[in-house]
Design brief:
This protein is mainly α and 404 residues long. Helix 6 runs antiparallel to helix 7. The longest helix is centred in the middle third of the chain and has 31 residues. It is globular.
């Protein structure tokens, strides 16, 4: 009787769970918009400051590495402080970073732009807040759905691609960035007054460092991190570098046209991500992850062989985005199934960090392997093919579930 009495209130107590996850998704989308606000304007910065390939790659990659590594700490802090406080804090901290980016662009100050991009990386850590927050609102059997919905907050990258250049044209460069900063502050206020923690959530009081260290000692942490670094890292890398890639290989494209294509790439990945999670629940994450990684390898190879812009170019990159999204959903759905129950949060935070960090190196590789004589990034795409194949082989060796 006592067991029944305790279980009865659980369902009513979690009413409004979808609304809370959607609010978290909107907060994440806002953070992603800020995080990726430099990438759509990269051609403007490159032209006004006379930047080299290496300088452009560093400009695009700096926010990524900070937003990635910071997720380890932010994820652990979320376990202790809760999603509401962490969402609001990160959104508020990101607003001044956007303003600093504006100042750097106006003054054509490259060192300040890099420093501002470093600070802007704070916005990218927001992903690590939403995973534990959303998971706490759903039973274990439904967390794939919850995290799939929250993962759609990546749409903020598409917002950055579609909206930022148009906002600059409609107003001016400085005003556009002030508007972005204002949206961040407004979303922080909405989170503070409307978001609430799940009744099932309990703050973790154990020291943060030992929890992270224990997760890093497990082989499964590194295995899942490598796989997620390929699919989410590939998504982040193309989200930041695709505009640069297109405007270099196809110089007739202006910033807005290239940003539109980048936005379409992001939307395709975002829409397929929840499907990857659902299929992983129904079919098993292993087979879905293998399919996704294989698809990425094939699409990257096809992209490397294309010389002229055509419908095939767009289809190839959209398919690549879809496979990346499929892999994100399946691999992140794989993590709780193969992690020790007491370390799921710490491992998830580390895997999320690895995913973002996976987006740091590809732009640098693309810049380093660019062949000016043939105007080609083929070598960089070959590297993605090889990495995806290695990931596919690793996935094939792993199990769907942890065997205790």
């Amino acid at each position: 009787m006592s067991s029944t009495a305790q279980a009865a209130p659980a369902s009513p107590a979690l009413k409004g769970q979808l609304g809370q996850v959607i609010l978290a998704t909107l907060a994440s989308a806002t953070g992603f918009w800020a995080w990726m606000s430099i990438a759509p304007m990269q051609k403007t910065y490159a032209t006004s400051m006379g930047l080299s390939e290496g300088q452009i790659a560093m400009m695009l990659a700096t926010p990524v590495i900070v937003g990635s590594l910071g997720r380890i700490l932010v994820g652990a802090l979320t376990d202790r402080l809760g999603g509401r406080k962490m969402f609001a804090t990160i959104l508020l901290l990101a607003a001044p970073a956007v303003v600093l980016v504006s100042i750097a662009g106006q003054t054509k100050n490259y060192p300040l732009l890099i420093a501002s991009g470093f600070y802007l990386g704070v916005a990218g850590t927001i992903f690590a807040v939403g995973i534990p927050f959303s998971s706490a609102w759903y039973a274990a059997s439904q967390r794939g759905f919850a995290n799939g919905v929250f993962g759609m907050g990546m749409i903020g990258t598409a917002v950055a691609a579609f909206v930022t250049p148009r906002l600059v044209k409609a107003t001016n460069y400085q005003m556009a960035h002030f508007i972005i900063a204002g949206v961040l502050v407004a979303m922080a206020a909405l989170v503070w007054f409307c978001m609430k923690e799940s009744p099932a959530w309990e703050p973790q009081v154990n020291p943060i460092v030992p929890r992270i260290t224990a997760a890093l000692k497990l082989a499964i942490t590194w295995q899942m991190s490598f796989l997620y670094a390929i699919v989410f890292g590939g998504f982040v890398a193309f989200s930041t570098f695709l505009t640069k890639y297109l405007t270099t290989v196809y110089p007739h494209l202006d910033t807005v046209a290239a940003a539109n294509r980048m936005g379409s790439f992001v939307i395709a990945a975002v829409l397929v991500r929840p499907i990857g999670g659902v299929l992983a629940d129904k079919v098993g994450p292993k087979i879905i992850s293998i399919i996704a990684l294989g698809g990425v390898a094939v699409c990257a190879f096809l992209a490397s062989a294309q010389q002229k812009e055509s419908a095939l170019t767009g289809i190839t990159f959209l398919l690549m985005a879809a496979f990346l999204g499929l892999g994100q959903g399946s691999i992140f759905g794989w993590v709780p199934r193969v992690s020790p129950k007491d370390k799921v949060g710490a491992i998830s935070g580390t895997v999320a960090a690895a995913g973002g960090l996976g987006g740091y190196f590809p732009p640098l590789v693309m810049a380093a392997t660019y062949d000016a004589a043939t105007n080609s990034y083929a070598k960089g795409l070959y590297a993605l093919v090889a990495t995806a194949i290695v990931g596919l082989l690793l996935a094939a060796m792993l199990k769907n579930d942890r065997k205790d």
